[in-house]
Amino acid sequence: MTTVVSFEPLFPEDRVLDPLLDRTAELVDSSRQLQAVQRTPLALALIPQLRAMNSYYTNKIEGQHTTPAKIEAALMRDYSPDHTERKKQRLAIAHIAAETALEEEWGSLEVSALFEPARLTTIHDRFFSDLPADERFTSEGEPIVPGELRQIDVTVGRHLAPEPGMIEPLLDAWAKRYARIRIKEYQLIGIACSHHRLAWIHPFADGNGRVARLHSHLALRAADLTHDLWSPLRGLAREHELYYARLSEADQTRRNDLDGRGNLSQEGLVKFAQFFLDCCLDQVRFMVRMTEFDGVTDRLLDLLRYLDANPWMVGSEKSVIRPEASGLAMEFVATRRAVTRAEFNQMLGVSDVLARRITRSLLDIGLLNSPSHRGDLSFGLPLKSLRFLFPRLWPEVDQE
User: Fold this and answer.
1) Which of these, 20, 188, 210, 338, has the minimum number of CB atoms within 10 Å of its CB?
2) Number of Cα atoms under 13 Å in the Cβ half of residue 365
């Protein structure tokens, strides 16, 4: 029978912490490099695309991902007529909606608050409540009740999950252990370890992986580490086979007297934490390179030239871009701030009629955003622009 000591150790012993602390120290240092760019127009415009990317990758781990273009279509309420593809689109939108709402609602919380068990049921509820009732079923056909803890026995791979009556006591022990950590580097190790131990508890009938990954994303954000510009989800998906292997290894019982003092393998837990932190480090370094913005003005001009050479219909007229006129204006909006329409027209340096056509074209393609037909103009980052402005950020977009 499972007890609250069945999934100990929840945190590694001091004697094995040094390699993990080296990783967390580097992670904290690397993430600080993103602070300089996090409020720039380019970085702010990236956030919606990064949320869509997160949804793509967490669903890819589950084998239920659609394409980036179909995610963008679903965000505009354009769903596929194919039932299977439409369901994948809804899964993507459910993740985006949950991530967006919880980042806003929990934005001022300390890391410790993220370990309250009610936070987990809220994540589960937010995700599954956004799906139609006829799509809330497990692969075995059992109904999924949003936010409800598991009521049945389950086996995940070789792991027999704890009996339902032990889920709440285990979650309480999980929360108590990780919530009391205060030093940031130790908190990050705790977030890594808590990811596995939450998966081990398997508190829900379905959606445990999604909940654990979104919880880790939110906890790292609460630790003031992501600056809204990276997430472990992309890294975990890129190494999803190793991700599953490390989770399974951390499920194993203690091998010998040198393998910690708990019921489960400390070595397995440390290896999972190392893997998780390495994924985080990889993603931080990647986004630091992405947001250095060296050459972005040249890439923006290349995009404007491409659009100019490939016009499309904007209402009853063809698009007009004029890169020689719009290039400097768009560079200012992308790297400095939003502008009034009068300011943008002045930067363009063309006639009022031509300025309005250029502005309409840029708004139509999504490189400019405005709250109204007279509102200020801010920088936008449509999906189709990523391969020009941020190549390799989301490789599947480049392939499309």
Assistant:
1) 338
2) 24
The domain 14-290 is placed in CATH, from the list 3.30.230.10, 1.20.1250.20, 3.20.20.70, 1.10.3290.10, at 1.10.3290.10
Say how many CA atoms lie within 13 Å of 398 toward its Cβ.
Answer: 9
Whether the Cβ atoms of residue 248 and residue 157 lie closer than 8 Å to each other: yes
What is the model's pLDDT at position 258?
87
Contact status, residue 60 vs residue 233, Cβ threshold 8 Å? no
CATH architecture of structural domain 296-399:
Orthogonal Bundle (1.10)
Cis bond upstream, residue 12 (ω within 30):
no
Query: Helix 208-222 to helix 83-105 angle, to the nearest 10 degrees?
Result: 30
Residue 288 has a pLDDT of 93
Which residues touch 258 (CB under 8 Å, ≥6 apart)? none
Parallel, antiparallel or unpaired: strands 378-379 and 159-160: unpaired
CB 379 within 8 A of CB 368: yes
The pLDDT averaged over each successive group of 10 residues in the chain (400 residues) is 95 97 97 92 96 98 96 96 96 98 97 98 98 92 95 90 97 98 97 98 97 98 96 96 97 92 96 98 95 88 97 95 96 95 96 96 97 95 94 88
Which tokens hold the place of 160? 């027999």
